[in-house]
Amino acid sequence: MSTSAKVPAPDPLDFLAVDASLSTEEADIRDAVRAFAERELLPDVADWFEAGTLPNPRELAKQVGELGLFGMHLTGYGCAGTSAVAYGLACRELEAVDSGLRSFVSVQGSLAMAAIHRYGSEEQKTEWLPRLAAGDAIGCFGLTEPDSGSDPGSMRTRARRDGTDWVLDGTKMWITNGSVADVAVVWATTDEGVRGFAVPTDTPGFGANVIHRKLSLRASITAELVLDGVRLPETARLPLAEGLGAPLSCLNEARYGIVWGVAGAARACYAAARDYALTREQFGGPIAGFQLTQRKLADMVVDVNQASLTALHLGRLKDAGACHHNQVSFGKLANVAAAQRVAAAARSVHGANGITLEYPVLRHMLNLETVATYEGTEEIHALSVGQAVTGISAFR
């Protein structure tokens, strides 16, 4: 059947028109976060990456809080209560600038705030969530330890009762926002199993040491937390957090944000490679006209759009209350690998220029090495999917 209507050519930056299915509210949030990220963050992020720091984190927290991005998918206590898709779009636009900036937001919202929101007492929620949502306070999440990464059940940090108090001892490692946080959600083993605590960071015995000499996620603050006889009242314990499932459920929220975030990093690398290929001339013409370059760009656009589709589909499932944690593992496994392929190909298109901070591709490529590790390594998520399709656990 013929038709006179002409179908428009695909948009090179949204080849499968993924964003065409967004609601007006979702598109408005996307546009607002993209405008903020490109105006306030993109001009300086290469310098921050080179310096290996995130300067003025409290000023940034206030800006993010005013935009309503901290804990935006949570309800009440000053949180915006947006959809999961809207939160994912915010993660995508932040990570299109830099993974460290998305981590700054998602650690606060999907880990620290989500833990207090889901497992905290009413008093803890009232004390911390409005301040964290507004960016008046910064939070971090202490689960990983120097000898306990993929196996958090082997953590050595311990909380023991002493009268009506708890005393915490141990060390946490690779903690985003750790040295600038006002509250740390810390997980520890007790005689009753794993428990969570909302620890004010000015409590005696609490210390944070900034981790330097990173070659990835440099526009981010990463710290070691040291708990040396940290005495807390019973009111600091998250009363509904019982067992390892509590922190793992928070990690699943963060992984969901990563599924979207790396789609943004991939998009940024592909867009940079396309622009470069169209303007870089060799042998009398733009390198975009060479077959090998076009193949690289074609592979990139496939990965970018498939990653975007995966993120959007998981977001719709999540908003419908039908997203299983194994499906989030599928998303992190697939999308991080896709983003790494795109970043590597984009760097090769840029040639020698690809190793400089004048272009974003190697910065994203290095950041993705961290993203592939935190919130569950590639191997862990592959085994999670493997267990889901076989019914057999390979972990124990």
TrEMBL record:
Origin: domain of life: Bacteria
Gene3D superfamilies found in the cross-reference section: Acyl-CoA dehydrogenase/oxidase, N-terminal domain, Butyryl-CoA Dehydrogenase, subunit A, domain 2, Butyryl-CoA Dehydrogenase, subunit A, domain 3
Pathway: Amino-acid metabolism; lysine degradation; Amino-acid metabolism; tryptophan metabolism
GO biological process: fatty acid beta-oxidation using acyl-CoA dehydrogenase; fatty-acyl-CoA biosynthetic process
Keywords, sorted A to Z: FAD, Flavoprotein, Oxidoreductase, Transit peptide
UniProt-listed Enzyme Commission number(s): 1.3.8.6
Classification via InterPro entries: Acyl-CoA_DH_CS (IPR006089), Acyl-CoA_Oxase/DH_mid-dom (IPR006091), Acyl-CoA_Oxase/DH_mid-dom_sf (IPR046373), AcylCo_DH-like_C (IPR036250), AcylCo_DH/oxidase_C (IPR009075), AcylCoA_DH/ox_N (IPR013786), AcylCoA_DH/ox_N_sf (IPR037069), AcylCoA_DH/oxidase_NM_dom_sf (IPR009100)
Record field: catalytic activity: glutaryl-CoA + oxidized [electron-transfer flavoprotein] + 2 H(+) = (2E)-butenoyl-CoA + reduced [electron-transfer flavoprotein] + CO2
Pfam family, one: Acyl-CoA_dh_1
All copies of domain Acyl-CoA dehydrogenase/oxidase C-terminal, residue ranges: 242-389
GO molecular function, one term: glutaryl-CoA dehydrogenase activity
Record domain Acyl-CoA dehydrogenase/oxidase N-terminal: where: 24-136
Cofactor(s) this protein requires: FAD
Ranges for domain Acyl-CoA oxidase/dehydrogenase middle: 140-230
UniProt cross-references to PANTHER family, sorted A to Z: GLUTARYL-COA DEHYDROGENASE, MITOCHONDRIAL
Family according to the record: Belongs to the acyl-CoA dehydrogenase family.
Protein name listed in UniProt: glutaryl-CoA dehydrogenase (ETF)
Originating organism: Nocardiopsis ansamitocini
Gene that this polypeptide is encoded by: gcdH
